[in-house]
Amino acid sequence: MDRILKVRKEYDQIVIYRHVNPDLDAFGSQLGMYWTLKTLFPQKNIVLAGEMESDLLRLFPPFETDQLIKGSTLGVVLDTANRERIDGDITICDKILKIDHHIVVDSYGDINIEDVHASSCSEIVALLMKEGRVQMPVNAAASLYLGIIGDSNRFLYSSTSQKTFEAAAYLLDAGIHIDELYQALYMRNKRDLEVTRFIYNNYHEDGEIAWYYLSTEDLKTLQITRSQGSNYVNTLANYKEFKIWMAITQNDLENNYRVSIRSRDVAINEIANEFRGGGHAFASGATLVSLDELKMLVGKLKEKLNG
Ligand code: AMP
């Protein structure tokens, strides 16, 4: 980074961005970058952009972001395919470095490091640091490891490659304790059991597609937020009869319905794109303006499965 961007000489601060509705990879790559840059450039102002309140953050080492200052600014945007999904204002930056693993739809950076074959953005960051022979701080390594296991579903998805394990090995070398990370990540409580019971009792199916729907009222009864409601999408994974499964949650704030779509082996991201979304071949998100649109979405997915 220093060689290409002349960070040390040219910038007073670095602002690190990621996408809205952050998941483990968004936070993992953002915080991994944050801890690494803090170590590499201790004299610089390093700012975390975007909403930093989320249930997921309890899994990460505690952090304190610097406050924005006036001055020359480098923006590093992680895990974000297009500029509309960036959580924060990048117009304050003099230069943008984009690092991402989604399909390339918008190379908004001055420098774009885009690898659609990487399991996660965190994997790309870890391997960049490895290549640069960076002494990885343990907090950065833990964050990046969480990002990798989040997006690869603990090395389960086909996006997992030799490079993913290479990145993981490098992070383990930095001294992380994966047993502690896994325990924090997979420990559940009775509320999870209640939500899972609701999903098993109320899921819908149409051919090889299954989904569950959580209305605002359901979310209230189950005492979970809308985004927590989406996170149970894989409750419907791994059933032979279903090749595509979805979580649909009512979004009162935006007056629409958020859809998380997952697929075993048929690419669904182009269809997600048609419904105001996008993402990866087998894991995408979309938005419906009304529940009537659900029929259309299911129809298109069925066509894709048959086609
Ligand atoms: P989600 O179901 O929200 O977890 O999203 C699954 C994947 O699709 C994540 O990697 C998201 O970053 C990506 N994704 C979700 N919504 C969009 C969108 N509107 N545009 C591009 N990518 C998206």
Q: Write out the CATH superfamily name of the largest domain.
A: inorganic pyrophosphatase (n-terminal core)
- The average pLDDT value, as a whole number, equals 96
* Beta content: 15-25%
**What structural class results from the helix and strand content?**
alpha/beta
Return the domain count: 2
Order of SSEs, N→C? Answer: HHEHEEEEHHHHHEEHHEEHEEH
Quaternary organization: single chain
Question: How many strand units?
Answer: 11
At CATH level 3, the topology of the largest domain is inorganic pyrophosphatase (n-terminal core)
Bound molecules: adenosine monophosphate
Provide the CATH top-level class of the largest domain: Alpha Beta
Q: Report the sheet with the most strands, covering strand number, pairing sense and barrel closure.
A: 6 strands, mixed
Rg (CA only): 20 Å
* CATH architectural label of the largest domain: Alpha-Beta Complex
From the spread of the alpha carbons, the general shape counts as globular
| Portion in helices | 25-40%
Strand order in the sheet with the most strands: 6-7-8-9-11-10
Instruction: Quote the distance from N terminus to C terminus.
Output: 45 Å
Low-pLDDT ranges: none
Give the count of helical stretches: 12
